[in-house]
Amino acid sequence: MTNYKELGLVNTREMFKRAVAGGYAIPAFNFNTLEQMQAIIQAAVETKSPVIMQVSKGARNYANGTILRYMAQGAVEYAKELGCEHPEIVLHLDHGDTFELCKDCIDNGFSSVMIDGSSLPYEENIALTKKVVDYAHQYDVTVEAELGVLAGVEDEVAAEESHYTKPEEVIDFSTRSGCDSLAISIGTSHGAYKFKPEQCTRDPKTGKLVPPPLAFDVLHEIEKKLPGFPIVLHGSSSVPQDEVDTINHFGGNLPDAVGIPEEQLREASKSAVCKINIDSDSRLAMTAAIRKHFAEHPDHFDPRQYLKPARENMKKMYIHKIVDVLGSDGKLAQC
Ligand SMILES: [Zn+2]
Known about the structure:
TIM Barrel
């Protein structure tokens, strides 16, 4: 048993309280490589932002859960080495699907877990979430639950259709499950193809797809039911068109990739939404930099030659999200 506090990590409780009160959101960036971890920490330190580093089941399968745990421990020490005396770093399990997986993470240094019972019948979702909460809270680990279904694919999580969260269920769900935060469905979606072209309109000038707006009415209803309760948005990459264009220009093929416009995420950050999940944008930033590098330097074969610009490009993207979209810069309790 390794408690996260021994590793210098923090849970989400205090940072969410401050984020809801302060009208900003904490970035939750997925990671599974060294370069992503370095870029996330450099960005968080430079902007003095709290940060959630999250690990999906797919990331555990790819990189090994134990290694990722030690990387998060290393991330805390790295942040201090970069000059941040009191970093606020959460190690979070993204889309835990069983009690056993959540327990394994809690026992091995995670400070926050998500139990995603959103595909289960309502009562079963409550029962599973409560079981995880009862275990997690013994160790002061915070728990994110999900109500409503997002469309799209993220690692092993796939759903054909989305179902908005029903505002009339949120009080009962959060009270009976005891969860610390709630992921809701208001039209965000996993992956780099969040919407089918037929769900979008086209900008007549650029020919680019314009996605349907998020259901802010549903969000505001939920906020009214649960004043001050931390709300989470999954599937919130913006799929920056310049990265997509770079990828396509240098031999890639990502037609009609589309994400959530940043203005809408900025607006959501000012509400009770206090955690915004971003994964695909990091993948795109990394791939765009590597494709460009290989096109310009066909003789390079040392991974450091192409992973360095990839890391730089991801860092730039993380800083942009923190400062220009979520507003979590300068929000550490102590610098
Ligand atoms: Zn998700």
